[in-house]
Design goal:
- The chain has about 400 residues and is an alpha+beta fold.
- It has three domains: about 90 residues, RNA polymerase II/Efflux pump adaptor protein, barrel-sandwich hybrid domain (OB fold (Dihydrolipoamide Acetyltransferase, E2P), Beta Barrel), CATH 2.40.50.100; about 50 residues, Dihydrolipoamide Transferase; about 220 residues, Chloramphenicol acetyltransferase-like domain (Chloramphenicol Acetyltransferase, 2-Layer Sandwich).
- It is about 30% helix and about 25% strand.
- The chain has ten helices and 21 strands.
- A hairpin with a 6-residue loop joins strand 9 and strand 10.
- Helix 7 packs across helix 8 and helix 7 crosses helix 9.
- The longest helix has 18 residues.
- The chain is globular.
- The N and C termini lie far apart (about 65 Å).
- About 10% of the residues have low confidence.
Amino acid sequence: MLVQVKVPVLSESVADAKLLQWRRKAGEFVRRDETLIELETDKVVLEITAPDDGVLARILKSDGETATSGEIIAEIDTDAKASLQTVTTAATPQPPSAAPQPSEPATAADTDLKLSPAVRKLVSEHHLDPARIRGTGKDGRLTKHDILRHLERQAPAPSNDQPPVLEAGDDRPAKRVPMTRLRRRIAERLKEAQNTAAILTTFNEVNMAPVMALRKKYQERFVKEHGVKLGFMSFFTKAAIEALKKYPIINAAIDGEDIIYHGYFDIGVAVSSPRGLVVPIIRNADMLSFAELETAIVSFGEKAREGKLTIEELTGGTFTISNGGVFGSLLSTPILNPPQSAILGMHKIEQRPIVENGEIVIRPMMYLALSYDHRIIDGHEAVLFLVTIKEMLEDPARMLIQI
């Protein structure tokens, strides 16, 4: 029986997807759930897996071509499975005394590390010892990204790499590489924001000592109780939500000649991935606890590194928070994430002298930046929004009693 391999249902905002590279050739045997090819959209990279065991009978779309939602890109002949296995068994009879050998020997390290199916497959294919690879996932687990990074470090430069492109009359090499769909889409959206919105940025600074003291005091108990660290992002998300409640125009968006005031808080959290910056959305963030926020943020970070974010997780959002401080940024002017009207930029915490009660003291300070669409947000609303966040963070108890 022929089983069709189809492009999954894409989001309404995604017109098509680009086929990157087939991992199997027509005529080769494939197993159920084995990754056949990756599809790159302007939001996320999706893995297409084999729906059943069998022989890859036909490939209908080649590398680099585009496909639309639900389109058939290949066919698998499941009837060829039995005949193939029969021929293989008959052609290679096992000695009567030979003990059966498992196809994927399970080692102690393999069992202890609890590898996911995708990681287990890579480990088996490349004959790797998982115990020798450092895991970056939760509790030190190996992720697919860890394995791929390990292979990249060990593998020699690919022979089919594009040769350097030399400028006329210049002996200094320069390689021309086409932009990925994700990078092109990021460029389009950022330019769209600059061309459409009247972007203005306002700044403030916050004394992070109270939040840092609270984290230090309760970190151990928090991890023991919830299985996740208490980070800064949950505090900023909570503070931003309280400020959005006070100034709902910051949570609004322009639609034609109308303003849409959102009665919910879907907060986008900018995350760096190997393929570029992505912004997964925490839905109804106002209803989540600190632990639930931190769990969601950690999960998004892992998915981004492994390329596992879904289109649904990247669609929508009413307000975005971007933390350039993790890369050492001291100050920046973040660009809007259309159609949102504002974005909050966090930065590096740095010990700086400030004046408290007439005395100069050293405090861990962070600059905050709010970029906003001046077409609907006035300056005083933007300033008061940042002041509210500052007040919440410098007195975290206010977030609990919502004052």
